[in-house]
Design a protein that fits this description.
Radius of gyration: 20 Å
Number of strands: 0
Number of helices: 7
Strand content: under 5%
Structural class: mainly alpha
Helix content: over 70%
Shape: flat
Amino acid sequence: MYNMEEKNESVAQEEKNLYKSNNPLKFWWFVVKRSLDFKTRSPRKEFWMFYLGNIIVFVILLTLLTLVLHALKVAEYTELIAVYSTFVMIWRIVLLLPTLSLQTRRFHDVNKSGWLTVLFFACTFSLGFISSAFEHNYIKGENFTVLVLIALLCLAIDIWLFIVLGFVKGTNDSNKYGPRTL
């Protein structure tokens, strides 16, 4: 067994090699392995490459699922919708922690509180809930106006936070969340 300094050196070397790479799958796996890291920083490249890797892995798994369903001769529309919906729900649950930790580290990189991740998550969840209510015509009368205003506010907050996460460059020097990443 090695000590903590050797472990930190190993992680730093892995990070250095990773940031020289343009392989989204390596970034995806790196973020998944750092799912419990809510204290350090992550640069924009890690953010974007994780999401690109996420799309690649999702499409591969979805293709494999489709091939299995085809081999099992599952063709009824309701069965297909149930299987695909379940797959997407499981995928989102599995990637919830890595995504939240990455978003927190991105906020740290721009010297913002990681608690903005909770706001981002709450607004995104609210938008999904409100859109579902609109879709099923559960909203009538004056509640409609209030929910439209809430939806617009949540959308504006989500857009602002997404711009911060994806496009704002991190601080050049060390900040209260740690040293600058490579």
